């Protein structure tokens, strides 16, 4: 097993240590560092971003050719770590204990070091793993950090580890983080906002699980959650086709009830409302960035009625598609 020790308090040394131990390449831009690995140890990317209010975002997207243990050094009673696994699974240990905690795909977890100074993460051989760590320094003065200290550090006498229910909304938000194409301060602000959304979703999941301890076993299985996510991605890619719920159910291999439950968990919407939402979002993009007429946009997106499209567009954006297009033209001319 390959073992590497990283000191989270010394952010500058993290990626230098990764390069020394693993080989690979480092690229930097503004407050973001990316480490790329492609050798006998494995392949993938580790990305780190230093954000506001003592928050650090780490993302691992790795396929290892041998078991790899990454040891993260933390100060006691200072940091709260929010871990999330998007693909595969990882094993967590506080370093001074025999107890291992498994974090599976789509699971949330919250970790605080009260007695120990170590978090060990083990990546298994031949398993594609994508996970994120949001490390919050609660000694950094802010209302949020003070609240996190109260919830997960204050008055605790032993190391704290919480592993929650499966949550697909977090996977979708992390996907948005990975999709940010902007540069410089705009990029940092967008990522900072999305990371805070992930934090809010993690805490909300924790609170929900605490309230509904007896109901957690009733949630969808990991495989069912993966199928729901696959259908969501399918709709994102084929929004302009004639999407039939019965066909989506067959494609997912799930009952109608299971698929609808999954969409409500992930998007807070029924399947039909989600399809409508995706098409409306795309229509706004096409109106803003192309010379297509409203009629051309309507039928290119799979809507069968222009009047229906105009109605739901106005409900969402508070103006008609034609008015929205005129406003965007005026903005473009004035610019």
CATH class of the largest domain: Mainly Beta
The percentage of residues in β strands lies in 25-35%
Rg on CA atoms, Å: 22 Å
Alpha-carbon distance between the two ends: 58 Å
Q: What is the global morphology?
A: globular
Uncertain runs are 214-218
> Structurally, how many domains make up the residues?
2
What is the CATH architecture descriptor of the largest domain? Sandwich
- Lateral arrangement of strands in the main beta sheet: 2-3-4-5-12-7-10-13
Number of strands: 13
Mean pLDDT: 86
Assign the CATH superfamily of the largest domain. Jelly Rolls
**Secondary structure: helix percent:** 40-55%
CATH fold label of the largest domain? Jelly Rolls
* Count of DSSP H/I helices: 11
Biggest sheet features: 8 strands, antiparallel
Q: How are helices and strands ordered from N to C? A: EHEEEEEEEEEEEHEHHHHHHHHH
Give me the secondary-structure category: alpha+beta
């Amino acid at each position: 097993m390959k073992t590497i020790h990283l000191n989270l308090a010394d952010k500058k040394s993290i990626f230098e240590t990764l390069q020394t131990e693993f080989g690979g390449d480092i690229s930097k831009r503004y407050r973001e560092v990316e480490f790329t690995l492609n050798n006998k140890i494995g392949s993938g990317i580790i990305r780190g971003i230093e954000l506001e209010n003592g928050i650090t975002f780490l993302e691992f997207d790795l396929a290892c050719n041998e078991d790899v243990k990454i040891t993260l050094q933390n100060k006691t009673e200072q940091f709260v770590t929010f871990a999330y696994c998007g693909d595969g699974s990882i094993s967590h240990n506080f370093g001074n204990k025999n107890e291992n905690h498994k974090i599976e795909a789509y699971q949330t977890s919250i970790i605080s070091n009260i007695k120990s100074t170590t978090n060990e993460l083990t990546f298994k051989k031949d398993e594609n793993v994508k996970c994120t760590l949001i490390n919050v320094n609660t000694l950094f003065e802010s209302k949020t950090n003070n609240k996190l200290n109260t919830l997960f550090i204050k008055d605790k006498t032993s190391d704290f580890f919480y592993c929650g229910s499966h949550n697909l909304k977090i996977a979708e938000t992390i996907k948005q983080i990975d999709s940010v194409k902007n540069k410089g301060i705009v990029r940092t602000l967008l990522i900072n906002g999305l990371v805070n959304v992930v934090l809010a979703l993690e805490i909300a999941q924790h609170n929900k699980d605490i309230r509904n301890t007896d109901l957690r076993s009733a949630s969808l299985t990991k495989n069912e959650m993966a199928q729901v996510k696959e259908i969501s991605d399918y709709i994102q890619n084929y929004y302009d086709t004639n999407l039939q719920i019965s066909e989506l159910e067959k494609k997912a291999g799930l009952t109608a009830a299971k698929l609808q439950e999954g969409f409500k968990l992930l998007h807070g919407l029924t399947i039909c409302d989600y399809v409508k939402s995706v098409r409306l979002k795309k229509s706004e993009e096409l109106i803003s960035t192309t010379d297509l007429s409203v009629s051309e946009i309507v039928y290119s997106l799979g809507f069968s009625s222009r009047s229906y499209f105009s109605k739901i567009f106005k409900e969402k954006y508070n103006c008609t598609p034609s008015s929205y297009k005129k406003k965007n033209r005026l903005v473009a001319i004035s610019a």
